[in-house]
Amino acid sequence: MQSGRLTSLRNMILQPWPIWGPTWSRRHKLNGNMFRLEVFVFGLLAIAIPYFSSNLYAAAVGITVWDPEIALDRQIPVIGWMIAPYMALYLYYPAVLIFNRPDDRSRLELIAGVQMLSALTIFCAFFFIFFPAEIDMRSDIPQSILEGNGWQSTLFSTIHAMDQPFNAWPSLHIVHSYFLGRAITMWILRSWPSSNFAKAFVGVIWIEYILLCISILTTKQHYLFDLATGLILAIFAWQFVLPIMEKIANLPDNNLNPNYGQ
Fold first, then answer.
1. Which residues constitute the domain of residue 249?
2. H-state helical runs in 131-223
3. Is residue 19, in this structure, part of any structural domain at all?
4. How many distinct structural domains can be found in the chain?
5. Is 9 within the bounds of a domain?
6. Judging by beta carbons within 10 Å of its beta carbon (0-12, 13-18, 19+), is residue 207 exposed, middle or buried?
7. Within a 10 A sphere around the Cβ of 37, how many other Cβ atoms?
8. What are 114-167's pLDDT values in tens digits?
9. What is the pTM of this model?
10. What is the pLDDT of residue 217?
């Protein structure tokens, strides 16, 4: 019974929603870039709106339901240059569009992926709103970093202006970057299975991911608990989406369209 419910939930979240019909009909325009553009716009709206609205709401209410901070969180040092791998998350989003192959099978995988990211964002927003926890560690960052004229202070100022110190757990930074990293890896190794350069590039992606995991702590953007819950959710999310990716991989060529699940 549980397996059947999980399958139903997976199909509801991941099989293409009806809104993709018009986008699919335009998928060959501009050498396939129209499809990428429309997926990007959908992702921007479906991810940015839940994230920033929940962030602003939690900050406006200003209530911490519980505090996940432990002593070790304060003992982790601030490392100014780690703001670079932290901000590098935002390179994953265009990268996933660039490395998605311009064929219908890969397009269906991209649709499933962006729907999953949307669902993950809404899932995390539930905790941001109903179980808010303020991350009150920005005061630990030395003023020499925050008030300098270099690139580090610029990036810190940018992230502090964009992001109120709420939306703690699970860390969407960790969830999104892991999921996008797995998708990018899948498409790169499929396109260039024998390329040493491609394998080296995949290695760079995962070195960056490790640095990103560390950076959310050393920039005082998150607690260890946020990292742990983000990793758990990220791994579960990828395992959750794999059966749909495998289903798409096994579709006959004459059924590569958004209605394949009907």
1. 24-255
2. 143-146, 151-162, 172-191, 196-218
3. no
4. 1
5. no
6. exposed
7. 15
8. 999 999 999 999 999 999 888 888 989 998 888 877 899 999 999 998 888 888
9. 0.91
10. 96
